[in-house]
Write a structure and sequence with these properties.
The complex is a heterodimer of chains A (302) and B (295). By secondary structure, chain A is α/β, with parallel strands linked by helices. Chain A is built from 9 helices and 11 strands. Chain A folds into 2 domains: 223 residues, 3-Layer(aba) Sandwich (Rossmann fold); 50 residues, Alpha-Beta Plaits (2-Layer Sandwich), CATH 3.30.70.20. Helix content of chain A is 35%, strand content 26%. A 9-stranded mixed beta sheet of chain A has the order 3-6-7-2-8-1-9-10-11, with helices on both faces. A two-stranded antiparallel sheet of chain A has the order 4-5. In chain A, helix 7 links the parallel strand 10 and strand 11. The longest helix of chain A has 22 residues. The radius of gyration of chain A is 22 Å and the shape is elongated. With 295 residues, chain B is an alpha/beta fold. Chain B folds into 2 domains: 210 residues, P-loop containing nucleotide triphosphate hydrolases (Rossmann fold, 3-Layer(aba) Sandwich); 61 residues, Alpha-Beta Plaits, CATH 3.30.70.20. Chain B starts with a strand and ends with a helix. The chains are: A alpha/beta (302), B alpha/beta (295). The interface between A and B is large, with 58 and 68 residues.
Chain lengths: 302, 295
């Protein structure tokens, strides 16, 4: 679909949780892989990663996701108190004869560590979660970011998983990367979409769905990335999404009606796209939209 | 006064529908508090009248004065957030990526970088259709959801609850298990997890219960859409028992939930289905009685 050496990366976002991001992401990645494309599917919903539930996988490798936090080395400290002045996040209390660190408040900016005149605050590794690479089939890889429970900063975990996915795609010359993004419209959602070529917004037709999508759409709009909508769990009686799409001139690629059988399959971690013509049709529209973007993006490069 | 948080782990399980129903049952005696600051929906169903807005600043952003910048690049070497990029032989800050740490400003030899307060959201106070105070917020799109805005929303809700001698604060929380969820649960008397009988729901619930356990907060589980998969519904019940938390039964799949949201009402105002009403009432009244006399 895309030319040699070019990967097309698509992020699936929603704003509201539970609207069907994972369903669309898994089904899309599997369909592309079934068409013979080399695909990497990455679960960036690191607080609640669920993609793996839908796949039969073989673990290839696993590694710790690490951030760096300062550690106080008492023997080197001259109690000048500068570290506390450098820290904007109140993660350091420099007392006359003691320095207390609050790692959960630390953002890892390195200012205290680099600027300490006696190098008494070296940055040391601190595990926040695990990134695992799985093989699903000859053409489908799956990368999962999983935040450790009790860890507070999810966006660093999203960033690391995303970058690992991009590296993997470049190394193996994959044609597609599909990101299953976290809900919300905050930093973690931004990290999940900011390096992708296109964004797919899955939305449910309720005022909740519209409200939350609107928030995340502001992010997408700011990034200038091509964006399209998929309405999931459609049922008659609500026009808010159509009005929004019209106003923002966004294409609605597909409407997937609410189907209790699909909900049941989902509950068991099963997704047999062939059994659901509406889902299959939606995927066809999505892939043709993405392919048209791929053609456009390749054109200038000849 | 009791503080009850409604959380879920997985998104879209019905936190807001349950929180709104509890708000409806509590009437004027509760303060409603929406801590899902980047997807805040509670006010859409309980209503918001006489809305007061205040700006929230959760931190700083760096700004480079191009007149002073000499293009030496010391700042780009200092920044760990890829927030500085070259521009016309000088440098500029990508505000969205800037963490506000100020490292670049400390090291800039030309003193060309200033740190300025950045608006990172809005906090709203209002009254619900039932006359209860409601506090909610909107995080600026793409801002770090560190939990600080939720904490601020919680603080305002506490002040209002004290001033009005409210019996309860009802907190509609965010999905997930990191900062924002922790901020919503901190200092509460009870966390109610709304779950759904799907493998994803069970997996997320396990992680969420573990979070609550680490925080030493008593909790319980209410299943939504229980009839999607009855086996998994029983499994959640077993999980609740094994985790020594309350199990409040299961709501059934019903289009009344979607209809209520579309009509801007709580489900209790939009349904005649006794199976929905009784489960919600039983859960709320039991929890309310248990914590009623908390100081």
């Amino acid at each position: 679909m895309s030319e040699k050496g070019t990967t097309l990366t698509v992020s699936i976002l929603s704003g509201k949780g539970g609207v069907g991001k994972t369903t669309v992401a898994v089904a899309l990645a599997e369909l592309l892989a079934a068409q013979g494309e080399k695909v990497l599917l990455a679960d960036l919903d690191v607080e609640e990663p669920n993609v793996g539930i839908f796949l039969e996988t073989q673990l290839q490798e696993s590694m710790d996701a690490i951030v760096y936090r300062p550690r106080w080395r008492e023997a080197l400290c001259i109690y000048c108190g500068k570290c506390q002045q450098y820290c904007k996040f109140n993660a350091i209390a420099a007392l006359p004869n003691y320095v207390i660190l609050f790692p959960e408040l630390c953002h890892g900016c390195y200012a205290c560590s680099d600027l300490c005149p006696t190098s008494a605050l070296p940055m040391v590794p601190h595990r926040i979660g695990k990134i695992s690479l799985y093989r699903v089939s000859a053409s489908l890889l799956f990368l999962e970011g999983r935040l450790d429970i009790g860890q507070e900063i999810a966006s660093a975990m999203v960033r690391q998983t995303r970058d690992r996915a991009m590296r993997e795609a470049a190394r193996d010359a994959l044609s597609w990367v599909v990101f299953d993004a976290p809900p919300g419209a905050a930093c973690a959602a931004r990290e999940a979409m900011i390096k992708s070529d296109a964004v797919l917004l899955v939305v449910e037709p309720t005022p909740f769905g519209l409200h939350d999508m609107n928030l995340v759409y502001r992010l997408i709009q700011k990034s200038g990335k091509p964006c399209a909508l998929v309405i999931n769990k459609e049922s008659p009686g609500y026009e808010g999404i159509e009005q929004f799409a019209q106003h923002e001139e966004l294409p609605i690629l597909a409407r997937i009606p609410y189907d209790p059988r699909l909900a049941q399959d989902y509950s068991m971690g099963k997704l047999s796209v062939g059994a659901f013509p509406a889902l299959e049709g939606a995927l066809m529209s999505i892939t043709s939209w993405l392919s048209s973007l791929a053609v456009q993006s390749n054109r200038p490069r000849g | 006064m009791m503080r009850i948080a409604i959380l879920s782990g997985k998104g879209g399980t019905g936190k807001t529908s349950v929180a709104a129903a509890f708000g409806y049952l509590a009437g004027r005696n509760a303060v409603l508090c929406d801590c899902d600051v980047d997807a805040s929906n509670l006010s859409l169903v309980v209503g918001a009248e006489n809305v007061q807005r205040r700006e929230y600043s959760g931190g700083d952003v760096a700004i480079i004065d191009p007149q002073r910048c000499r293009g030496c690049g010391v700042c780009i070497g200092a920044c760990h957030f890829d927030a500085i990029a070259p521009q016309n032989a000088k440098y500029h800050i990508e505000a969205a990526a800037c963490e506000g740490c100020g490292y670049c400003a400390f090291v800039c030899p030309a003193h060309a970088i200033a740190m300025i307060a950045r608006k990172s959201g809005d906090i709203f106070t209002a009254h619900s259709r039932f006359g209860a105070p409601i506090v909610y917020a909107e995080l600026s799109a793409g801002a770090e959801n560190s939990g600080r805005l939720s904490t601020q929303v919680r603080r305002i809700a506490d002040e209002i609850a004290k001033a009005e001698e409210a019996e309860a604060i009802l907190i509609d929380g965010p999905p997930g298990i990191s900062c924002p969820a922790i901020a919503a649960a901190t200092g509460t008397d009870y966390v109610l997890f709304v779950s759904e009988p799907t493998l994803s729901g069970v997996s997320d619930l396990e992680r969420a219960l573990e979070m609550a356990k680490k925080m030493h907060i008593p909790s319980g589980v209410l299943v939504n859409r229980g009839d999607i998969n009855r086996d998994l519904c029983s499994m959640i019940r077993t999980l609740a028992e094994r985790s020594e938390v309350d199990f409040w039964g299961a709501l059934l799949l019903s289009s009344d939930f979607v209809c209520a949201v579309r009509a801007g009402r709580t489900v209790l105002e939009a349904t005649n289905d006794e199976r929905i009403i009784s489960v919600l009432k039983a859960a709320w009244h039991s929890i309310a009685v248990r914590f009623k006399n908390r100081k």
